[in-house]
Amino acid sequence: MKTVNEAVNVSRSAYQWLVELLFGIVGATVVMLILALSMADALANQSAIEIKQDKELPSTTAKSITSISNLSTSSDLAMRQVGSASMSMMWFDIYSAKLYSSDGKYQANQLPLKLEIEYHRNIEAEDLIDATVDQWQHLGISAQKIDEYREQLAKAWPDVKEGDRLTFMVNTATQAEFLFNDKPYFKVSNMQFPADFLAIWLSENTSRPKLRQQLIGMN
After folding, report:
1. Of 132, 116, 99, nearest to 166 (Cα)?
2. What pLDDT does 28 receive?
3. Any idea of the CA torsion for 128, 134, 140, 146, to the nearest 10 degrees?
4. pLDDT confidence of residue 19
5. Bridge partner residues of 97 (DSSP)
6. Are 103 and 122 a contacting pair, CB within 8 Å?
7. Rounded distance, CA 33 to CA 17, Å?
8. How many CB atoms lie within 10 A of CB 217?
9. DSSP character string of 162-177
């Protein structure tokens, strides 16, 4: 009887040991799985961070480009207004004009200069060109020059609507361009054009002497 009991006890001990071993293996497996999942999560998070950083790089580049763009217009922003004037016919307002220089003062042949015109009516480009030609004829510009300039203006000027701005920016005697609503629109290639175009408003022989005085700050 004793032998049987001992055998039963041994079997129970073996069973208990087997159970403990099994739980130990399962526990170790669970721990390993947890560690593996943790490592996988860590790697996934790291990848997500790297992807996010890669996506943010173009944004940083865009900011840099924006800063460069702002710097490129700094000389324009530094210009100071010399004077302003309005052009009217009968009861109709045609445009308002503003003249800018580097120091806010006007001196003949001093550059850079910027002439900004804001239109108060819808005007077709052809009508603008015809009016400009009339002013050149008044100033005594040769017919040959006017024909050359007309070709330039046909490319340089769009139809304008009320509120549109056409700006003539003269950086040097040979470097000038038109901007339409503050955006570069056409670069002038004729070296004599800038002086002759500005003469419409700034020449002492202009057809609008009162407007000239207002623009150059003599009013």
Report:
1. 116
2. 43
3. 50
4. 38
5. 85, 117
6. no
7. 24
8. 15
9. TT-EEEEEEEETTEEE
The number of residues making up the chain comes to: 219
**Vertex 138 angle, CA 90 and 186, to 5°:** 85
pTM of model > 0.90: no
| DSSP run (H or E) holding 54 | helix 2-72
Tally Cβ neighbours within 10 Å of residue 96. Answer: 16
The Cα–Cα gap between 159 and 167 comes to 14
The tokens of 11 are what?
Answer: 């079997």
What phi and psi values does residue 205 have, to the nearest 5 degrees?
-95, 10
Question: Terminal CA-to-CA distance of the chain, rounded, Å?
Answer: 133
Kindly give the confidence (pLDDT) of every residue in the chain, 219 residues in length, as a single tens digit, with 9 standing for 90 and above: 444 344 434 444 444 533 343 344 434 443 343 334 444 454 444 544 444 444 343 333 222 222 223 333 334 458 999 999 999 887 789 999 999 999 999 998 899 999 999 999 999 999 999 999 999 999 999 999 999 999 989 988 999 999 999 999 999 888 899 999 999 999 998 889 999 999 999 999 999 999 999 999 987
On whether the CB atoms of residues 180 and 158 are closer than 8 A, the answer is yes
Kind plus residue range of the DSSP H or E element containing 81: strand 80-89
Query: CB of 207 within 8 A of CB of 131?
Result: no
